[in-house]
Amino acid sequence: MNLVNRGFIFVRPSKTFIEWAKEIDTDLVIDENAEGSTYLIEEEFWDDELILKQYAKKIASQEFSSITEDETTWPKWTELAEFEAFFRIDMGCTCIDLLKEPLQKEAI
Cα–chain-centroid distance for residue 89? Predict the structure, then answer.
């Protein structure tokens, strides 16, 4: 096992996100138990709100684009509370890699 020098933001869709997504794609099978996404961030941070403000636009863009690439249909938000309405969010400072193989990165 290896400790990875990253913290994380883990997001899962909320009811608000699911309702928006189903408006875009009525055949979409998604619920609040859907698989979430983990975003690696700096390892040490002390202010969750400050970190969320820093990364919210990137996270929202990635999550909304997973439903549609048409940005004109993406929900509009300006306040962090509006962003947080779309996702269930967990944050932490410890990432442990259980595998022996080296980590790989791919730009998206």
Answer: 8
